[in-house]
Design brief:
The structure holds 2 protein chains of 2 kinds. Chain A is mostly helical. Chain A is built from 12 helices and 2 strands; from the N terminus they run αααααββααααααα.
Chain lengths: 332, 336
């Protein structure tokens, strides 16, 4: 079909501005919450306001942060991934057992572990797009399958005595007074790269279109099923990278890791203002969401508040985040 | 909270009963059930091994089941029902929820089943016929006394890396440690986590290495002068060590723990953990199975609390606190 009016290809101005503006509104709220929390703890908690402490918070959210990138991509397509923590645990045990027990070179162990987690992501995507099963069910099933596989493969034993190459991401370099881990840098880089892909490439824009309205996206010629398959596969790769960050952080391959990370990553995504219905949200919001959880955990510990209150506050924040998002949308 | 719907339980029970009916017809071996907290914790893996060994020696059919996660009561309720249906005359259980499991235990007992708690007590402890467990309070006291002696005249600044809210094992170890360190006004019956001026920071770790590391990092940030770290178990201790190492403090901080798993004892040997209180899951399990045999043969139920013992395993012995070295610990440890 030829198009006599090239303008009609562009999105009408009012719709354009709405689509472009909404995510940024939804990120402003979480950003304000984060800034307020930082100000509050800087005043109320000793030792909070320092480069070293901020670096610490970043280290503590690095694993969840990487996992949550994958979860964000999935949620943007209106899907959900409940298996990410368990896929990470498998990668965690695979890379350590291959390197320590099987004695493979660390690089080979890392590549094999990444291949395995990517393949599981691909399986998730295949079941969702080819067999047409709901993401919730597929990843719920996969959670159990991968958990059991991890336990059987590892004999429920933690792997220790890792070669230095596996813990490289846990090494630090100094910025001023703060010791920053390479794992933190990797997480921030992944956010930057993924955000750029989302905003500046065709597949990135396709992903939003698919999440917004899969039928409309299909009619405009976007290969929706392929986009969704790709998203779950890339998510699997990201969970493998999260496993590498975790191994470097803890210095061990723990088969019981990742038990709560599926819900924790959804928490970060929601706190960051991304809609669970798909198509709306920004990756940077997820990083802010993860940081909010990290800042509260760290700050409340510094204030001497028992752990259980940290969980209480996280719950309140999740509901507040979604409520303000809904409210702002109704207003607009 | 409702447990599984009745019909599901019934179906499961019938299936289990049918399967077992076949095997029971082959020989009237006594049936003993073992229900652990989880399938995956090495401590319970070892306990299961001990029970299996004792069962083979005594010609007992052993059934095993577990909760899904730490704290999962519903899964243990289902397991009790299935085992009663399968003809178990003795059930050994490590309760996930000390109070919530009691109605199910009462139901089983009403059908002539002997129920014995292993590893951790029910609340009240009298709800089961017998208890074979470590005295967790004593386990805490031993590492507390050790820490006190090892610190000498230095002023203690303590971080407590706990389990999760309300768990009796977590409370007893925590309180025992403080009492052993010399904090006044605490005893084995103190119901809540005690605190003291020497405690600079207390956080939950769920017994998990990564969460233990995060808790320790934040505690160090709260008070950089922390020099004694109590940990609920050895994975949490490993996490604490990672955090201390990153801060360059691993040499001058005393880490204490409880469990005596093989990985933990190796950490004592390496100087990562100063001392740990070793417990003996194999012994709990074999005693439980033997009680099951005695009940099946003579109809006599086991009674009361049997302390399966706890030994302090220390890297360096201190005067006035009895301990064993890592070699002894490795010879008697559980796990891999």
């Amino acid at each position: 079909m030829t198009n006599p009016n090239p303008k009609s290809l562009a999105i009408p101005p009012e719709r354009y501005s709405l689509r472009e503006r909404l995510p940024s509104i939804s990120v402003l709220g979480p950003l304000m919450a984060l800034v307020l929390a930082v100000i509050f703890f800087s005043v109320r908690a000793d030792n909070f306001l320092s480069g070293q402490n901020f670096s610490l918070i970043l280290q503590q959210v690095a694993v969840l942060g990487v996992l949550a990138i994958g979860q964000t991509l999935v949620i943007l397509t209106a899907g959900i991934d409940l298996s990410n923590g368990m896929i990470m645990a498998l990668g965690n045990v695979l890379v350590t057992k291959l390197a320590v027990t099987a004695g493979l070179p660390p690089v080979v162990a890392i590549l094999l572990a990444l291949a395995a987690t990517t393949f599981i992501g691909f399986l998730n995507g295949t079941l969702i797009t080819r067999v047409k099963l709901p993401p919730f069910i597929v990843t719920l099933g996969m959670l159990n399958i991968v958990f059991a596989t991890t336990q059987i493969y590892s004999g429920a034993q933690t792997v220790t005595g890792l070669p230095n190459a596996l813990t490289f991401l846990g090494n630090t370099f100094r910025i001023g007074g703060a010791a920053v881990t390479y794992g933190t840098v990797l997480m921030l880089l992944l956010y930057l790269v993924t955000a750029l892909i989302l905003s500046h490439t065709a597949p990135g824009r396709h992903l939003y279109a698919v999440g917004n309205n899969p039928e409309a996206a299909r009619l405009t010629g976007i290969p929706t099923q392929r986009v969704i398959l790709l998203v779950y596969t890339v998510a699997g790769l990201l969970y493998g990278i999260a496993a590498l960050v975790l191994v470097a952080r803890t210095g061990a391959g723990d088969p019981n890791a990742g038990g709560t990370e599926n819900l924790d990553s959804i928490t970060a995504v929601v706190l960051g203002g991304t809609s669970l219905f798909g198509g709306r949200g920004l990756l940077i919001g997820t990083l802010i969401g993860a940081l909010i959880v990290g800042v509260f955990r760290n700050g409340l510990t510094l204030m001497g508040v028992p752990s259980v209150y940290q969980i209480l506050i996280t719950g309140i924040l999740v509901i507040l985040a979604v409520a303000t998002d809904q409210f702002s949308r109704r207003r607009s | 909270m409702r447990a599984t719907p009745k019909f599901v339980t019934a179906t499961l029970s019938l299936t289990a009963a049918a399967v077992l009916g076949l095997s029971l017809a082959q020989g009237a071996q006594p049936v003993v059930g073992l229900i652990t907290k989880t399938e995956t914790n090495p401590f319970f893996v070892k306990m299961k091994e001990g029970a299996q060994k004792a069962a083979t020696v005594n010609g007992v059919r052993l059934l095993t089941a577990a909760g899904k996660t730490d704290g999962d009561n519903a899964g243990q309720v289902t397991a009790i029902e299935n085992m009663v249906a399968a003809g178990a005359k003795t059930i050994l259980i490590t309760p996930n929820d000390a109070k919530a499991i009691i109605p199910s235990i009462k139901k089983a007992q009403a059908q002539g089943v002997q129920v014995i708690a292993l590893d951790s007590p029910t609340d009240p402890a009298s709800a089961v016929d017998a208890l074979y467990a470590t005295n967790n309070y004593q386990a805490g006291v031993l590492i507390g006394q050790y820490a006190r002696k090892a610190m000498g005249n230095k002023k203690a600044v303590v971080a407590m890396l706990d389990l999760f809210p309300g768990h009796p094992v977590g409370i007893q170890r925590h309180n025992g440690f403080l009492a052993g360190y010399g904090v006044a006004g605490i005893n084995a019956r103190t119901a809540n986590l005690a605190t003291a001026p020497i405690v600079a920071c207390a956080q939950d770790t769920f017994g998990d290495q990564a969460k233990g590391q995060t808790a320790m990092e934040n505690c160090l940030q709260r008070n950089p002068n922390i020099n004694v770290v109590y940990t609920i178990n050895e994975p949490a201790a490993a996490g604490a060590y990672q955090a201390l190492k990153a801060a360059g403090r691993e040499k001058d901080v005393l880490i204490l723990s409880v469990d005596g798993g093989c990985a933990g004892v190796r950490n004592v040997q390496a100087g990562v953990i100063a001392a740990t209180s070793q417990q003996y899951p194999l012994k709990m399990a074999s005693m439980g199975v033997e009680a099951g045999v005695a009940y099946a043969k003579g109809g006599k139920k086991a009674k009361g609390y049997t302390d399966t013992g706890v030994t302090l395993i220390a890297n360096k012995a201190v005067a006035g606190v009895k301990s064993q070295d890592a070699k002894f610990g490795l010879a008697n440890c559980w796990g891999q």
